């Protein structure tokens, strides 16, 4: 089988191996004695062993699940309430049976096992065809071992869930096995460095298995909110099946008919979606009917028309609902209701542009956090969850999004900044690269002076935030306004020694792609002090190192390349002299993906401090984490270092 996904390395702790049984009740002494996971200390609980065994019965896949979990801390007791979600629907698409559970404790040095009765095992309907199997272990304590097993039948043989080796707690042993049958042919979709580099694999006469050990927990880390995109897992999509002259999938021995393709080409997949969108009215060639939109697009260039239509839809239609590739409403319904999900809005926008003769097509993407770090290189529809629009405006291609009601024309939601997507064009749909060009940065200008009239030391700050850095400011301002908080609070840091005053924000994103923020930091009574100690670059978000963990499981994701440039002019007050200031520094890591330079010039009446932080790559591999951590510690020290002025002692 092919390695279909890019696998990003994560750092493993010390090897921790002992034999695990995947049968209930077969618990060994090492598992009973375990009190902490050596490579992830502090974990509240640990999966000692887990397994899945899948095989086909008729027109159903049955998987036997087994889990053995040990509670290590008081917080780990939450894992004594197990919830297993499945989709029953109207036709019992999935069903669960054969549930067994037991609780193991060590009492007076002896292992005791308690069977979990039916009163603690429930099937609960949670709506929209979904159910939950709930298992409670009422007497679970720190040190308890929970075991449970069940069987899940699944009639959906087109997409097989497969197996996720990583969970929210560390896993010492995880094995998945599937027994294929000749009548059904599948493409395996795998993801994760360990799956392809460190797993124990078996492929023998239709039986395939993967075993992984010592896996870190799956959880968010600083500068990595899309950790699910790197989860170790396998899943399957049906490629073709053998028909015996009838419909449906045939079991072994039920005939030797011809194979029928299920996994179509990109072109066929694209045509199917185009037909679906057309049925909803989004592929329109006629002009817009009067009354649907109060929008005149009769004059202007293609880009001017596209911008006018964008702002009309952004500002007059309510953006509400889950971003998804399948619209619930038709175009006319959406335009009349004035409310729709982001995917519906972008398709409506496409309809408006097409009505003006502008060439534009949807691009399906798998957004960040949806579960894929890379595209699957065959027509696997389930990898896509959101929509962009690719338009040709006055001969230039432009990606357009309508996900963010604060974003100007041409901005694309950060979670859609992915490497590629599926461009939908009749008869020629294909994967295309996606590149969103922008120069996001923060420019900080600071002037420091001692006010002779008030005796205050005042640091005047101007922050100019371009593109997506500016959009962050716009969202922060909106949240403070919604909470009826002063903008002064937005620029106040915890434990701030100086007072923030006169904060103002000027939003020029739409006109000039930046936002201007100004505010003052005020130190009252400074004129009476013998020494003045202050940080002229305190506005930086990296005055504290965000990377404090000893090891890293996932790569560092800065979301996009950016820079921060700081310039501070410190006016030396009469009667004062410079006592101390940070030394010059130039720092970088291997490959120069992150660099920093800091310099100070003493110009007599002015002390000039300049610094620049460059993040040239949005994704820093985990192998470079140690270097990055050390670099950011040094950067934080420089950016938080004070300048000290002292009064001149008269002879």
TrEMBL record:
Name under which the protein is recorded: DUF3857 domain-containing protein
Domain DUF3857: start-end pairs: 65-216
InterPro entries referenced in this protein's UniProt entry, alphabetically: DUF3857 (IPR024618)
Organism: Algoriphagus lacus
Pfam families: DUF3857
């Amino acid at each position: 089988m092919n390695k279909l996904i890019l696998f990003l390395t994560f750092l493993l702790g010390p090897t921790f191996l002992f034999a695990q049984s995947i049968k209930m009740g077969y618990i060994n002494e090492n598992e009973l004695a375990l009190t902490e996971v050596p490579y992830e200390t502090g974990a509240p609980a640990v999966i000692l062993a887990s397994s899945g065994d899948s095989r086909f019965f008729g027109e159903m896949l049955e998987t036997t699940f087994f889990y053995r979990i040990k509670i290590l801390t008081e917080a780990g007791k939450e894992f004594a309430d197990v919830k297993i979600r499945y989709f029953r629907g109207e036709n019992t698409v999935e069903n669960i049976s054969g549930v067994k559970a037991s609780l193991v404790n060590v009492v007076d040095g002896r292992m005791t096992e308690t069977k979990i009765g039916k009163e603690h095992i429930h099937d609960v309907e949670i709506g929209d065809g979904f159910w939950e199997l709930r298992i409670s272990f009422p007497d679970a304590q720190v040190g308890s071992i929970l075991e449970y097993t069940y069987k899940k039948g699944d009639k959906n043989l087109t997409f097989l869930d497969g197996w996720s080796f990583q969970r929210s707690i560390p896993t010492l042993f995880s094995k998945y096995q599937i027994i294929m049958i000749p009548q059904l042919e599948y493409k395996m979709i795998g993801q994760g460095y360990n799956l392809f580099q460190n797993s124990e694999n078996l492929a023998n006469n239709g039986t395939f298995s993967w075993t992984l050990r010592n896996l870190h927990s799956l959880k968010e880390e600083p500068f990595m909110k899309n950790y699910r995109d790197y989860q170790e897992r396998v899943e399957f999509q049906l490629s073709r099946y053998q028909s015996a002259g009838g419909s449906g999938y045939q079991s072994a021995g039920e005939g030797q008919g011809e194979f029928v393709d299920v996994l179509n080409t990109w072109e066929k997949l694209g045509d199917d979606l185009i037909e679906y969108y057309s049925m909803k009215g989004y592929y329109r060639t006629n002009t817009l009917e009067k009354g649907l939109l109060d929008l005149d697009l009769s004059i202007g260039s293609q880009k001017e028309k596209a911008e006018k239509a964008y702002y009309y839809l952004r500002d007059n239609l309510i953006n509400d609902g889950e971003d998804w590739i399948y619209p619930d409403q038709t175009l006319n319904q959406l335009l009349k209701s004035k409310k729709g999900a982001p995917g519906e809005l972008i398709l409506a926008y496409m309809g408006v542009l097409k009505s003006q003769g502008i060439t534009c097509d949807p691009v399906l993407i798998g957004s960040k956090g949806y579960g894929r770090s890379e595209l699957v290189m065959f027509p696997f529809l389930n990898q896509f969850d959101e929509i962009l629009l690719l338009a040709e405006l006055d001969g230039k291609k432009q990606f357009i999004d309508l996900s963010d009601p604060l974003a100007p024309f041409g901005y694309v939601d950060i979670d859609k900044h992915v490497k590629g997507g599926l461009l939908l064009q009749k008869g020629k749909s294909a994967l295309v690269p996606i590149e969103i060009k922008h120069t996001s940065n923060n420019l900080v200008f600071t002037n420091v002076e001692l006010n002779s009239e008030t005796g205050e030391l005042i640091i005047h700050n101007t922050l100019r935030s371009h593109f997506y850095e500016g959009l962050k400011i716009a969202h922060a301002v909106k949240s403070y306004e919604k909470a009826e908080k002063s903008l002064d609070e937005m620029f106040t840091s915890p434990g701030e020694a100086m007072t923030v005053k006169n904060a103002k924000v000027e939003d020029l994103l739409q006109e000039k792609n930046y936002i201007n923020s100004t505010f003052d930091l005020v130190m009252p009574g400074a004129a009476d002090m013998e020494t003045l100690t202050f940080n002229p670059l305190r506005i930086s978000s990296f005055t504290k190192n965000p990377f404090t963990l000893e090891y890293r499981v996932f790569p560092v994701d800065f979301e996009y390349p950016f820079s921060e440039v700081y310039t501070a002019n410190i006016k030396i007050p009469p009667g004062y002299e410079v006592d101390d200031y940070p030394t010059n520094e130039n720092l970088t890591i291997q490959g120069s993906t992150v660099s920093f330079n800091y310099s100070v010039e003493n110009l007599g009446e002015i002390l000039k401090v300049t610094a620049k932080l460059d993040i040239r790559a949005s994704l820093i591999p985990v192998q470079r984490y140690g270097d990055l951590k050390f670099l950011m510690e040094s950067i934080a020290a420089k950016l938080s270092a004070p300048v000290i002025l002292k009064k001149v002692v008269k002879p």
